[in-house]
Amino acid sequence: MRLTGTPSWLSAKRRGQKASSADGQTDGPARLWSVGGGKGGIGKSFLVANLATVAARSGRQVIVIDADLGGANLHTCLGVRPVERVNLSDFLEHRIEDLEKAALDTPIPGLRLIAGTLGHTGTAEATQEQRVELLARVRELSADLVILDLAAGMDRACIDFFLEADESVLVTTPEPTAVENAYSFLRAAFFRRLADAMRTSPVRDLVREAMNTRNDRGIRSPADLLEQIEQIDADECARFREMLEQFRPRLIVNQVRNAEEVKMGF
After folding, report:
1. How many Å separate Cα 82 from the centre of its chain?
2. How many Cβ atoms are within 10 Å of 205's Cβ, its own excluded?
3. Which residues are within 8 A (CB) of 239 and not within 5 positions of it... i.e. 6 or more apart?
4. What's the CA gap between 163 and 14, in Å, rounded?
5. Nearest-CA neighbor of 126 among 98, 159, 96, 101?
6. What is the pLDDT of residues 158-176, one digit of tens each?
7. What is the mean pLDDT of the chain?
8. C-alpha of 69 from chain center
9. Residue 246: which H helix or E strand, with range?
């Protein structure tokens, strides 16, 4: 995969975002993208490195964060050796209070890296409190764009970061295991958002039941769930439809080799 030029979704003007000033300072909160995937080896870090490079070369101030606390490798893609330097775990474990201080320069002007944890023997997943704190501090970073390179899989931290981003990108490859895991990731993310949005809804129990793939009602897809909700509460059905429209992650099928594999994305 090779990225050339500037994708239309990098446009600050289209998104209403302020560009960097001449001295490199930015105005307003950083825009947040997250890149996730159901399994390892599908090219997430490679994609993040390329997206970040394109954005930086277009004049944006960019920070990439390797949010994989168990198998960080984004630094390798960017030519950075973070050994014995500050990284994300230093912030999560309060060894540094300012997330900005963990941002390392890369060989690409305008692009900095907050490295993941290397050689760390502690937990490989941030707590709920750490995730909330991290997301709040990410928005305060001195950057136009922050890209989170998420760990492989669909643990709670990955799904939370995926859903909280302004743009969420799911990466897969044409391999059957990757496709299956990508579907599971999307399903988990969708039902997580739905459950949060309908926490006080009269159909919340139905939503929780639908999250179980073996539910007795035969709900196997969002369309099935929509039909069930419509029978119970028309107003909630309308809210559910709106929720469906708002859930629009982007999908990238990486490492395609022929036209049939390209069609898989559609």
Report:
1. 23
2. 10
3. 197, 198, 201
4. 21
5. 159
6. 999 999 999 999 999 999 9
7. 83
8. 15
9. helix 234-246
